[in-house]
Amino acid sequence: MNYSSTFIPTLREVPADAVIASHRLMFRAGMIRKLANGLFAYLPLGLRAFRKVEQIVREEMDAIGALEMRPPVVQPGEVWKESGRWDAMGEAMLRVKNRLENDFVITPTAEEAFTAIVRDELSSYRQLPLSLYQINTKYRDEIRPRYGVMRGREFVMKDAYSWHCDDESLDKTYQAMGRAYRKIFKRCGLSVIPVKADSGAMGGSGSEEFMVESEIGDNTLILCKKCDNAANVEKAGCAPDFTARSPEEAVSAAANTPPFEKVDTPNVKTIDELCAFLKSTSANFIKTLIYRAVNVELDLSNAPGCTNLEPKNQIPEAFFAVTIRGDLDVNEVKLAALVKAAEVELAGDRDVLRLTNAPVGFAGPVGLNSLPIIVDHSVTGMNDGVTGALAKDLHYRHVAYGRDFTGWMTGDIRTVKAGDVCPLCGGELYEKKGNELGHIFKLGYKYTRSMQVSYLDENGKSQIPTMGSYGIGVDRTLASVIEEHHDEAGIIWPVSVAPYHVIIVPIKYEGEVKTASDRLAAGFEKAGIEVLLDDRSERPGVKFNDADLTGIPWRVVVGDKGLSLPQPQVEIKHRRDKDNRMVELDRAVEDVTSKIREELDIYA
Amino acid sequence: MNYSSTFIPTLREVPADAVIASHRLMFRAGMIRKLANGLFAYLPLGLRAFRKVEQIVREEMDAIGALEMRPPVVQPGEVWKESGRWDAMGEAMLRVKNRLENDFVITPTAEEAFTAIVRDELSSYRQLPLSLYQINTKYRDEIRPRYGVMRGREFVMKDAYSWHCDDESLDKTYQAMGRAYRKIFKRCGLSVIPVKADSGAMGGSGSEEFMVESEIGDNTLILCKKCDNAANVEKAGCAPDFTARSPEEAVSAAANTPPFEKVDTPNVKTIDELCAFLKSTSANFIKTLIYRAVNVELDLSNAPGCTNLEPKNQIPEAFFAVTIRGDLDVNEVKLAALVKAAEVELAGDRDVLRLTNAPVGFAGPVGLNSLPIIVDHSVTGMNDGVTGALAKDLHYRHVAYGRDFTGWMTGDIRTVKAGDVCPLCGGELYEKKGNELGHIFKLGYKYTRSMQVSYLDENGKSQIPTMGSYGIGVDRTLASVIEEHHDEAGIIWPVSVAPYHVIIVPIKYEGEVKTASDRLAAGFEKAGIEVLLDDRSERPGVKFNDADLTGIPWRVVVGDKGLSLPQPQVEIKHRRDKDNRMVELDRAVEDVTSKIREELDIYA
Q1: How many CB atoms lie within 10 A of CB B69?
Q2: B297 near B340, Cβ under 8 Å?
Q3: Tens digit of each residue's pLDDT (9 = 90 or more) over A455-495
Q4: E-assigned strands of A474-545?
Q5: Hey, how many other C-beta atoms are within 10 angstroms of the C-beta on A353?
Q6: Which residues pair with B444 in a beta bridge?
Q7: Higher pLDDT, residue B46 or A424
Q8: Cα–Cα distance, A425 to A239 (Å, whole number)
Q9: Which of B9, B42, B121 sits opposite A121 (nearest CB)?
Q10: Chain B partners of A92 at a C-beta cutoff of 8 Å?
Q11: Minimal CA–CA distance to A286: which of A325, A241, A243?
Q12: pLDDT at site B352
């Protein structure tokens, strides 16, 4: 392809809103343009690189037997109502009514569509397992789209779904997907951090996220300095820095603690003020927070204050008192998982007053029986703590877990932070920001049950299949490649996803130089190498800058000087190298082609 | 690929709403499923065929230097407002507001998006000509989607756009696109009818539609029995079956016509009743119809009754009296083009009364000066006609064009019909229903002007580029292939778009037969042939039926009987043939592969 016949509008300026390297460079290299906030057009150069990533994803999906299909992008609201997500999805799902007033969704994900299709075709266990995928347009109505295609509104996702007779079969596909994902990211030249969520029992609610480090990442990762433990802070655990005790053990541990007593704490509002007032540290406080939980699936029939909640199987609104050591924070994702709630949030002032008989700041577990108390493990180690006393300006001290209160449930709901101890090896944990590129997830029966999918097993009995879902953001993967592979001058493509393998730069595209350049281009094309010939009448400096900016791995410079040598030569340079070397004109195609093939093998 | 590892849910039953062959067969062959009215999912087999068509389109676009890019599917309403089509597009364009109340469009076509992008990048004449295209999802909110993917709501279209310095350059790209389209349809095995619209001056508003014959087509085509003249009835012309005359010539032609006179025609309402009453035929009537025209760009400043119309350059509403020979019909598309109106429709009763002083049915050109009269060419040949007399129950007879009235404008606004005479060769014209698969169109300055696109010419002067647009419906092309290539038993794929080239059918997939089948499959794969191996434990009859239904071009049957011959043999049959032939097992791959390659060459 001749440069003058394509459309690569490179820019010297950086758009004001482009704060990360991939956004800046995709604009400057003429890969993308913005049509509206969060809506981008891939220009020809960008689309070439995009297609490479897409094709790698496709090949690895095909390799594990997943079957590509394609549902529509505009999907009927009906299937989302069946699964219950029409209400659950929130405003990020773009909904539209057509001229007949029917509800539609510009699909953000496709569990429902795939499940609806499989439901109609599935009859026998012999059809399972079944893995289907698409690589297709998605839309998420981000309020603040940012960072170019890294967080756009419209994007392309590879989403796969699988259906199985049993957990073992699901796990097999889940593992194969995990291996395929590792392969995909390796082929793209990406260093990903696989982050395992709570593994649970085999076939349970396993999930794994594939993260790349990013200063602007949505996720906080907890990593270990010593081992390869990696977790999303939302689910990260750590080794306890306390002695966890059962209520009975706690009673003995409190043998020397004086009985708890009231302390007047007038005008003391924050934990810090309380510490100063009582000459204590926050680690000595039993912090008590009142949480409101939505759509709770936990059985609360025997929980204090909950006997009247309806319906029994999913309670729309329930309140919990949550106790945790004063120097720690509650991880709301872990809390929500513990009480099987769709969401949890701090209760409003009025609910706190109603439930604790005291304003915010004076809740405490002693004598609190208007709602269930959740005790973080850290509190089970506390035998001489300070808590609110359920009355304004009043606290208790010498409070001991087990002796003075127990709680309805205990669990790990602490937010792990840098400096905590690795639960696997005892090493020190640290934090990193990360962006999620992929996610594999054992869904279980969520969709197959709500959407009434069934098949007949070997005994002719009707069964519900279990299900997995597996996603990769294609745009985000492409942008992450640039984040990991660039320098001041531009992109440095791994050859596996480079829009072209070679760029030929004639110093001046005329006479001998033109003839030699054309011959080289034809030679590369014949060898199956993707070559761009910069035939523009620009100064060499402009051409070199554009070659660096667009990041094409191999550059071949053709000039009068080299050609006039007794054995005519051209200059060869890899984008990541500083130095170039001269190669005989007649051997240049063979030389570079073999290097490209070697490099492609590394990424294969 | 083994049949049991893929997902081809074939059906014996036909969905009730599937009335055309492609719809029926795509369902039955497990190529598509319906998710909602007009919204289809391509299953793996369907997607494979779809991709073949898509790839043929892509190759032919690339071959003429068009550059693929990809704007988003959800596009900002803003650019549609700039071009003026936000209002013009009507309800078939699906509009949506996001959570921030911004307007978006699920794009039905992309003149605006491409033009907006090019506008920002275009500076110099040296960047032109430029041709860009996408193959991407489109949405049209059809009220009654029908016929499967032939007229769905969501579909994939290849749409290309080009920008040029001058008409000559536009024409060159337009011609290249036309050639590429012919190639694309040939490669898909489709017989298309290229339908030229009014060619106009070079660089004028040329357009060409690529039609396939279809009983359920949206378009009526006028074709010649003798030559290859083909036109959309909307624009078709025919040779005159009358003597066209200037007003002066008409006056002499009417030399022997008595002066016109009133005839009482009480209670006579239709032309038929009038014919009976006057003992005449409809060809003797000068039919006069009052039309309302919207957004008229024709200069009406000197037209009767129009002097007060504002604004001068585009009149929102104007009325015309249209005269035509009584046995002919007015073609409203041709009429709208003649008066440069966005749309024309018959005027309402009240407007007819106001403008003619008579109820509907008694309009006539004699003495009518409240509005401009448009005279179809056919009327210029009439020197003794009957017309309404602008009063209830009253007609004139012996009316002669030129002598008794002239009209403000004459033109060809007649609807051509079967039996009319070909304007090119004098042959007889006939009608066919057709579906449009592609359309190439010289847009001119419509978008570049309204969206203010400009570039600097060689002299540094700002100029507006001219533009073309070129579309192909990919789904509809695929469905049309099936319409043209099927029989009672199923699809008969042209090898160029077949989802697989070969299907191997073992009579019973075990023992020797299994070994031989596996070896054949491996052999085909090694030769680069796409092969499906029916490894299911179904009866041979079921497998043969599915092979016929899915239409895979070559079938290789492997059975004990053939394998037990001294020279083991398998049975080979092409889907379109009745008879099969035995081929030595060892030569089967080579034999079929060479046949496939020959066939592929035919379609290349």
Answers
A1: 22
A2: yes
A3: 999 999 999 999 999 999 999 999 999 999 999 999 999 99
A4: 486-487, 490-491, 502-506, 531-533
A5: 14
A6: B467
A7: B46
A8: 9
A9: B9
A10: 99
A11: A325
A12: 95
Lookup: tokens for B530: 């796409």
> In this complex, which of B41, B120, B154 lies closest to A117 when CB atoms are compared?
B41
Rg (CA), chain B: 30
Distance separating alpha carbons of residues B448 and B162, to the nearest angstrom: 11
pLDDT tens-place string over residues B166-180 = 999 999 999 999 999
Residue of B nearest to A31 (CA): B69
Q: In a 3-state reduction of DSSP, which class is residue A571?
A: strand
CA distance A220 to A418: 11
Chosen from B2, B53, B58, B73 to mutate, greatest number of chain A CBs within 10 A: B73
Q: What is the DSSP string of B37-72?
A: TTEEEE-HHHHHHHHHHHHHHHHHHHHTT-EE-B--
- pLDDT band at residue B200, thresholds of 50, 70 and 90? very low
> 3-class DSSP state for residue B244?
coil
Residue B599 has pLDDT above 80, yes or no: yes
**Hey, is A572 helix, strand or coil?**
strand
- What is the per-residue pLDDT across A290-304, written as a single tens digit (0 to 9) for each? 999 988 988 888 898
Tokens of B483: 């319409």
pTM recorded for the entire structure = 0.88
**What is the three-class DSSP state of B7?**
coil
| Torsion angle of the four alpha carbons A79, A85, A91, A92, in this order, in degrees rounded to the nearest 10 | -80
- Mean pLDDT over all residues of chain A? 93
**pLDDT confidence of residue A197:** 67
Is B69's CB within 8 Å of A100's CB? no
Residue whose structure tokens are 């009439």: B382
Alpha helices, H only, B451-537 = 474-484, 511-526
Q: Using CA atoms, how far apart are residues A528 and A524, in angstroms rounded to an integer?
A: 6
d(CA A423, CA A416): 11
| Tokens 């009406």 found at | B300
Q: Residue A524: which residues within 8 A CB-CB, separation 6 or more?
A: A501, A502, A504, A530, A531, A589, A592, A593
Q: How many Å apart are CA A240 and CA A260, to the nearest integer? A: 26
C-alpha B8/C-alpha A225 separation (Å) is: 50
Residue written as token pair 């440095």: A492
CB A32 within 8 A of CB A149: yes
Three-class SS state of A475: helix
Long-range contacts made by residues B141-145, C-beta under 8 angstroms, separation at least 24? B141/A98, B141/A99, B141/B91, B141/B92, B141/B93, B141/B94, B142/B38, B142/B92, B143/A99, B143/A100, B145/B37, B145/B38
- Name the closest residue on chain A to residue B77, using Cα atoms: A36
CA A141 from centre of chain: 17
**Which of B37-51, B109-123, B157-171, B414-428 comes out lowest in average pLDDT?**
B414-428
Beta-carbon contacts of residue B225 (< 8 Å; ≥ 6 apart) = B422, B427, B428, B429, B430
Q: Please state, as a whole number, how many other Cβ atoms lie within 10 Å of the Cβ of residue A260.
A: 22
Neighbours of A191 (CB within 10 A): 10
Token pair in block for residue A472: 């990769």
Lookup: tokens for B61: 């676009």
Determine the residue of chain B that is closest to A4 in CA distance: B127
Helix (H) or strand (E) holding A137: strand A130-139
pLDDT by residue (tens digit) across B285-295? 999 999 999 88
Those residues with Cβ within 8 angstroms of residue A140's Cβ, 6 or more apart along the chain or in another chain: A92, A93, A94, A108, A153, A155
Contacts of B69 in chain A (CB under 8 A): 7, 41-44, 46-47
* Closest CA of chain A from B67, distance in Å: 6
Alpha-carbon distance B581 to nearest alpha carbon in chain A (angstroms): 34
